Please model this.
Amino acid sequence: MKSIHTTRDVLAHARAYISGRVLDAGGGSATKYKSFILQHATSYTCIDASTGGGVDVVGDVLHMPFEEGAFDTVICNQVFEHVPHPEQLMSEISRVLRPGGHAIITAPFTQPVHADPGDFFRYTPEGLSAIAQRHQCNVVEKGLYGGVWALASSYLKFLVFDPYQKQSRIRRGLMRRIEGALLWLDQWAHPRKVFSDSFIIIKKK
Model:
């Protein structure tokens, strides 16, 4: 398997599982992976508690206003740490996913505290898998991604630049350059030393 260093790498690796009607659960107003997802899907819907240009439905991911089996694919990127009831979130993902549909889930394993609006948990692939299996889902793949330099990039971004606060164009540009350089270095990080995130790909029974 090709080395995975970023969430974009996870989605690229999992593109064969992206199809049909896609729900981005907790995607936020940025929806920065929307264009990539739509290369493999027929429709894209983003639900998030915040308002914004990229949000289609403003709502609670723990109580999603969709019918059972409404989506072929659910993507839930870096959301599980922000909900106080992860079992309920997994239950909702399973409910809105059609039988045989896939969900791609990422969550932090080692990251700074980043309340949005809360920050409750950290996850290993085994932890995410255990939750999924309790909610009628089989685990297709699981793994860790992001080496020591990805971790350094994450800490720098949260502790120095604070992505949840408005930044000047100069600071945003500087952050992107530093982050890009560190993620480039991460290609040569030892694959078993430090990991910053977890991912699982699941299939509804």
In short: DSSP finds six helices and seven strands in the chain. The radius of gyration is 16 Å. The longest strand covers residues 97-108. The mean pLDDT is 89.
